[in-house]
Design goal:
The protein is mainly β. The protein has no helices and 11 strands. The strands form 3 sheets. Strands 1-2-3-4 form a 4-stranded antiparallel β-sheet, with no helix packed on it. β2 and β3 form a beta hairpin.
């Protein structure tokens, strides 16, 4: 029994990848449309020191990989980190963190593959500003998480919080 969120089709249209939630986990799943068979792809950790939650999947245009947001809550410091991870479409207990080493001043979340030759990834990053507030901006990276060869990694610059028609506080 799962609540399904943020579904995306695989390029062949035969499966849906989605964020699945139940009482104990929030992970990435895939369902084969013809059979209804559901398989868990990501395995976030939950223990006495951290709780991980996986959400907002995106499937690469070639259908080989899934990127997603991983929220890591550290219990001792009562703090959250949001980063973009990637794994093979077959799933992985240890996905690769793409933004854990990038210099984005805040969160990295909601990845989306570009349908270009390099299958780059764009994502949102919340950047806190001095004083109160901050802004969401859109960044770009190569599908391996690097920024090498990109003319710009930051695609937007604004102090407004209204991307994707989100409500303004």
């Amino acid at each position: 029994n799962l609540y399904a969120y943020a579904p995306v089709f695989t390029p062949d249209g035969l499966s849906l990848v989605f964020e699945g939630r139940n009482d104990t986990t929030e992970a990435i799943y895939i369902v084969k449309i013809a059979t209804g068979a559901v398989t868990q792809l990501s395995f976030p950790v939950q223990n006495e020191t951290i709780d991980e939650y996986d959400s907002t999947p995106s499937v690469s245009p070639d259908g080989t990989h899934v990127s997603f947001t991983r929220q890591t809550y550290t219990i001792a410091s009562d703090s959250d980190a949001y980063d973009i991870y990637v794994m093979p479409i077959a799933g992985s207990a240890t996905p690769t963190g793409l933004t854990t080493g990038l210099v984005t001043a805040g969160t990295s979340e909601e990845p989306m593959y570009l349908d270009n030759a390099n299958q780059n990834i764009v994502y949102l990053s919340w950047e806190p500003s001095s004083g109160t507030g901050g802004s969401f901006n859109i960044f770009e990276m190569n599908r391996d998480g690097s920024i090498t060869g990109l003319a710009k990694t930051r695609l937007t610059s604004t102090t407004k919080r209204e991307y994707f028609n989100a409500s303004v506080d």
